C-alpha cells in the first residue's frame, strides 16, 4: 500500500510516521502550495524526516528542494500515482473544502480515498453522493470522534438491517472540556481563556464555540444514515450571541466576561433539576440539532470528563444504546484512525499485529 497525503500538517505528518512504522509506503505529500512526489517507489524515512522538519520549521513544500522528489499540481500528482503507484490511497488530512481538486479525480482513476477532513463531505449533497458512490473506495472514520470506532459502528448497525432511532453524542473535545469545567463551578470566560492557552481550542475559539464543527460531524453521521440534510438545515446553538460573530478576536476575548452570567444561569438551572449541562449533537430521522442539553446525572454523557467524546446509537434492536467513548481529538489517534481506514481498504495485503485473518 502507498499513501499520498494531502495536508502535511499536524495530522498528516504523524500519519506518515505511523505508516512507515508498519511498513506502508508514502509516495507523495501535499500542502497548499503543491504535491511533492517521490521519484522512487516511495519516500525513505530519512527523506520524509527531512521534509517533515522543513515543513515544521514553517517552510512551504514548494520551497523544499530534494533530488528525489518533484513538485506537481494536485491533478498531475493524482494522475501520476494512479499510473505508477502500487495499491495507492489518497488520504485527506487538510481542511480544504473543494472535492473536485484531488478527491473526485482520485476516485475517477480508481484510487480509494480516506478522509480526516470533514469539509468535502459537508458541502453539497451532490458532492457527498459522488464521494460515497462506491463504498469500497472511501473511508471517513477520523472525520467524527477522531480515531474512535464511530463510523464503523454505524456502518455495522446499518449493514445488519437495524433501524436507527437516534444518534446522540458529545462530539467536541473542546466543548466537552469547557462544559465539564463549568460543571465544577469555573467561570465561562476563565475556562475559554484557559482552554485556548492549553491549545484545546482553535486559534479563534469561536470556531469551536459556534457549534459548526459539531454540526458538520452530525451531518456526516446523518448523511451516512441515508438522510439528505444540509448544514443550513441544522439547528445550531452557538455559545455566544450573533453580535460577537464579526468582531476581532481580541475584542471577542475581552467581551467574554459579558457572557459569564448567562452561561452560569444555564449551569445553575440544570443543577437545580439535579442534571448536568452538556453540548451535544442529536441526529434523528426528523432532523439534526447541535446545542446545550440538560442530561440526567446517571447518564453516560454526564459522566464524561475533559476532552473525551461519547457517541450513543439507539436502534430498533439496541434499545439500550450502544455507546462508543474515548479520546475524540489529538493527532496520534486521528492519524491512527486514518491508517486503520487504509488497512480496511487494502488490509489483506499488509500483515499487522492482527495477523492474516
Ligand atoms: N487535529 C486533530 O485532533 C483532528 C482531529 C480530527 C480531525 N482533524 C481534521 O484533520 C484535518 C487536519 O488537521 P490538522 O490539525 O493536521 O491541521 P493543520 O495542522 O492545520 O494542517 C492542515 C494542512 O493542510 C494543508 N492544506 C491546506 N489546503 C490544502 C490543499 N488545498 N491541498 C493540500 N493541502 C492543503 C495545509 O497546508 P499549508 O501548510 O500550506 O497551509 C496544512 O499542511 C482537519 O480537517 C481537521 O479538522 C483533526
Question: How does this structure look, described?
Answer:
It catalyses: L-homoserine + NADP(+) = L-aspartate 4-semialdehyde + NADPH + H(+). It is a single chain. By secondary structure, the protein is an alpha/beta fold. The protein has 13 helices and 13 strands. A 7-stranded mixed β-sheet has the order 4-3-2-1-5-6-7, sandwiched between helices. β1 (2-6), α1 (10-21) and β2 form a beta-alpha-beta unit. The mean pLDDT is 94. It binds NADP nicotinamide-adenine-dinucleotide phosphate.
Concise summary:
Its cofactor is a metal cation. By secondary structure, the protein is an alpha/beta fold.
**Name of the top-level CATH class of the largest domain:** Alpha Beta
Q: Estimate the helix proportion, in percent.
A: 25-40%
Largest sheet: 7 strands, mixed
Ligand species: NADP nicotinamide-adenine-dinucleotide phosphate
The CATH homologous superfamily of the largest domain corresponds to Dihydrodipicolinate Reductase, domain 2
Question: Key terms for this structure?
Answer:
binds NADP nicotinamide-adenine-dinucleotide phosphate; 13 helices; Rossmann fold; alpha/beta; seven-stranded mixed sheet; Dihydrodipicolinate Reductase, domain 2
List the helices and strands and how they pair.
Blueprint: E1 2-6, H1 10-21, E2 25-31, E3 34-38, H2 45-56, E4 69-72, H3 74-84, E5 88-92, H4 103-108, E6 113-115, H5 125-132, E7 138-139, H6 151-159, E8 164-170, H7 173-183, H8 188-197, H9 206-209, H10 212-224, E9 235-236, H11 249-255, H12 260-272, E10 275-284, E11 287-296, E12 308-315, E13 322-327, H13 331-346
Parallel strand pairs: 1-2, 1-5, 5-6, 6-7, 9-11
Antiparallel strand pairs: 2-3, 3-4, 8-10, 8-12, 10-11, 12-13
Helix pairs in contact: 1-2, 1-13, 7-8
